[in-house]
């Protein structure tokens, strides 16, 4: 017979958002259990650099009492930024003088920081939620892969783009934005790919034109992480042959899309080491929201998946987790008041960010790119 356990607060998903919520609750003496489908904390490499914004992610890390630890892990020089055109002409360069409000950290390092800040046993790995349902008494019941069932007073969907909790509150599902990525890496760039290392610089680099481009980052391990990005039909990535590190066909097909681009940019594809990873970019509708449903809510991508072109998703996941934790602590014994207060902050904030992400997408993938992106940065300069 299946036994049913009870967890007062169950957080489905141990990404940045779910972990921040658990941590903020923990620093206020409130326990919660996080369920994640991954086999362990390090089952999957959490690649990529994230810039953590002063007005969101950094506030969350302070609320989680992890700000000093975060600062110790920041990538020096990572806030540098370049914008190039398809001929690899440098059109804008921002140097990192250490005073910017968006320091960069490796995503895996940030996640490790959060994981190790939680008491042993808070996170249940290898725990994939396969279904969730409301019970008559306001609680929810969750079934995990493998058949384990538990009930909870507060069910938080922090389970990302394809959330299993979201259908409890909303019928919306993410839609393809029309943008496809192929992710690739150039390892040990200074030594093995000095030309590419020089081209990208010490932080982020956009090389754009003709509705496509390269979004590149210098990583803390000395590699270059590149998103080759273009407008494409949703079936396009599925038609590429990614076997044998893309040499079976994907690299040649990508290079064909960048005919006429500077050889230094084409080299980023030709010289890529390791596997090439295809990725469709999806988003929920701008302004996604739901009516209050007792005993459950969403945070992070589960609540407001957006394209990454404003660099807001991880920052929002962090601040959502911190805000939800704070609201629960501020309304002891009244979770509905806490969830109402949280969602009143969540909905307008994520709508603004989703709008900015959609505008970022149009600027980056415009036929006249990189001009619209340069104009956007010039507006930020004027405003600051
Ligand atoms: C290519 C790319 C680049 C990006 N770059 C940036 C950037 O530069 N800056 C930025 O701020 N944001 C960026 N983002 C967005 C950012 O990655 C996300 O917004 C952020 O990770 C969302 O955090 P989350 O905790 O909500 O969800 P996730 O990070 O997706 O975490 C969800 C967790 O839930 C678990 N899970 C999923 N389903 C289940 C289930 N059924 N049961 C149990 N566990 C489950 C997963 O294993 C995972 O650990 C980028 C996104 C992409 C795709």
Task: Explain the overall architecture.
- The protein is built from 12 helices and 16 strands.
- It is of the alpha/beta class and 384 residues long.
- It has 2 domains: 4-76 and 100-173 and 285-363, FAD/NAD(P)-binding domain (3-Layer(bba) Sandwich), CATH 3.50.50; 175-283, D-Amino Acid Oxidase, Chain A, domain 2, CATH 3.30.9.
- Strands 1, 2, 7, 8, 9, 10 and 16 form a 7-stranded mixed sheet that branches.
- The longest helix is centred in the last third of the chain and has 30 residues, at 335-364.
- It is globular, with a radius of gyration of 21 Å.
- The model has no long low-confidence stretch (mean pLDDT 95).
- The structure holds flavin-adenine dinucleotide.
- Residues 12-18, 35-38, 48, 50, 128-129, 158-160, 164, 181, 227, 279, 300-302, 308, 311-315, 317 line the site of flavin-adenine dinucleotide (FAD).
Q: Judging from the principal axes of the Cα atoms, what is the shape?
A: globular
What are the bound molecules?
A: flavin-adenine dinucleotide
Helix content: 25-40%
Write down the oligomeric state.
Answer: single chain
The CATH class of the largest domain:
Alpha Beta
Whole-number total of structural domains? 2
The CATH superfamily of the largest domain is FAD/NAD(P)-binding domain
What would you say the CATH architecture of the largest domain is?
A: 3-Layer(bba) Sandwich
């Amino acid at each position: 017979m299946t036994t049913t356990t009870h967890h007062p607060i169950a957080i489905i998903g141990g990404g940045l958002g779910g972990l921040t919520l658990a941590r903020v609750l923990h620093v206020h003496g409130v326990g919660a259990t996080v369920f994640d489908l991954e086999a362990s904390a390090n089952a999957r490499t959490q690649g990529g650099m994230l810039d953590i914004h002063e007005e969101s992610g950094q506030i969350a890390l302070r609320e989680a009492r992890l700000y000093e630890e975060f600062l110790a892990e920041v990538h020096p020089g990572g806030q540098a930024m370049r914008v190039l055109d398809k001929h690899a002409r440098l059109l804008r360069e921002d140097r990192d003088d250490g005073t910017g409000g968006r320091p960069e950290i490796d995503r895996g390092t940030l996640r490790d920081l959060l994981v190790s800040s939680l008491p042993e046993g808070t996170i249940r790995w290898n725990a994939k939620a396969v279904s969730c349902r409301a019970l008559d008494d306001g609680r929810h019941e969750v079934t995990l892969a493998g058949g384990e069932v538990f009930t909870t007073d507060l069910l938080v969907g922090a389970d990302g783009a394809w959330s299993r909790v979201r259908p409890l509150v909303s019928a919306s599902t993410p839609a393809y934005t029309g943008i496809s990525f192929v992710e690739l890496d150039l390892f040990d760039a200074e030594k093995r790919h000095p030309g590419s290392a020089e081209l990208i610089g010490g932080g982020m680099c956009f090389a754009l034109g003709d509705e496509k481009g390269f979004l590149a980052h210098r990583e803390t391990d000395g590699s270059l992480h590149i998103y080759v990005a273009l407008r494409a039909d949703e079936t396009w990535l599925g038609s590429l042959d990614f076997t044998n590190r893309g040499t079976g066909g994907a690299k040649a097909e990508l290079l064909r899309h960048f005919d006429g681009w500077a050889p230094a940019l084409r080299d980023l594809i030709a010289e890529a080491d390791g596997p090439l990873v295809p990725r469709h970019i999806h988003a929920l509708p701008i302004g996604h929201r739901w009516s209050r449903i007792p005993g459950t809510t969403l945070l992070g991508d589960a609540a407001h998946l957006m394209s990454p072109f404003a660099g807001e998703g991880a920052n929002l996941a962090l601040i959502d987790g911190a805000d939800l934790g704070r609201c629960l602590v501020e309304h002891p014994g009244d979770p509905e008041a806490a969830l109402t207060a949280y969602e009143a902050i969540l909905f307008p904030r994520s709508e603004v960010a989703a709008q900015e992400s959609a505008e970022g997408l149009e600027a980056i993938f415009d036929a006249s790119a990189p001009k619209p992106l340069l104009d956007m940065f010039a507006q930020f300069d004027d405003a600051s």
